[in-house]
């Protein structure tokens, strides 16, 4: 299998997990992510998360209020350099956040690193979503 196809397969795994997360499944993205202290996200809901614990917590928090997700990557471009690779494209789809419909059309960059023979996500970055931020601003703060 070519390296581009390996990255494409890792991307498919990420988006399958993202859809499970968007249908309320906490922990759905664990297998595709590196679990190191240096992994990062810049989500459509703002902020920056650093380290696997913070990244996992951010996705699990969205899973608590997400449903009916159908998200896919379009216009994918893959570049590989040794044991690092990135893809850019457009995340397109829709889901419900706390029962409110949200449409997505975000530019995205995902960075992968080869670890122990498989490709793991180490960074995910999308455009900010004003619609998602508006919905979150109207929700009560999470209880501890």
Which consecutive residue ranges, at least 5 long each, have pLDDT under 50? none
Round the mean pLDDT to the nearest integer and report it: 94
Strand order across the biggest sheet?
2-1-6-5-4-3
Listing every helix as H and every strand as E from the N terminus to the C terminus, the arrangement reads: HEEHEEEEH
CATH topology, anyone?
Answer: Nuclear Transport Factor 2, Chain: A
Radius of gyration: 15 Å
CATH class: Alpha Beta
- Amount of helix: 25-40%
CATH architecture: Roll
Query: How many individual domains?
Result: 1
Walkthrough of the structure:
With 144 residues, the protein is of the alpha+beta class. The protein has a single domain, classed as Nuclear Transport Factor 2, Chain: A, CATH 3.10.450.50. 27% of the residues lie in helices and 42% in strands. The protein has three helices and six strands, in the order αββαββββα. It has helices at 3-21, 52-63, 130-137; strands at residues 40-42, 49-50, 66-81, 84-97, 100-115, 118-126. The protein has a six-stranded mixed sheet, with helices on both faces. The longest helix has 19 residues, at 3-21. The radius of gyration is 15 Å and the shape is globular. It starts with a helix and ends in a 7-residue tail after the last helix.
């Amino acid at each position: 299998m070519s390296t581009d196809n390996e990255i494409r397969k890792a991307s498919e795994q990420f988006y399958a997990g993202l859809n499970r997360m968007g249908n309320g499944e906490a922990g759905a993205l664990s297998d595709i992510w590196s679990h190191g202290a240096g992994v990062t996200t810049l989500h459509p809901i703002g902020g920056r998360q650093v380290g696997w614990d913070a990244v996992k917590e951010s996705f699990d928090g969205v899973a608590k209020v997400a449903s009916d997700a159908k998200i896919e990557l379009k216009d994918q471009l893959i570049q590989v350099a040794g044991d690092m690779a990135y893809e850019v494209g457009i995340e397109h789809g829709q889901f419900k956040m706390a029962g409110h419909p949200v449409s997505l059309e975000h530019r995205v960059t995902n960075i992968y690193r080869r670890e122990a023979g498989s490709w793991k996500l180490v960074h995910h970055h999308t455009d900010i979503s004003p619609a998602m931020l508006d919905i979150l601003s109207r929700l009560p703060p999470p209880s501890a």
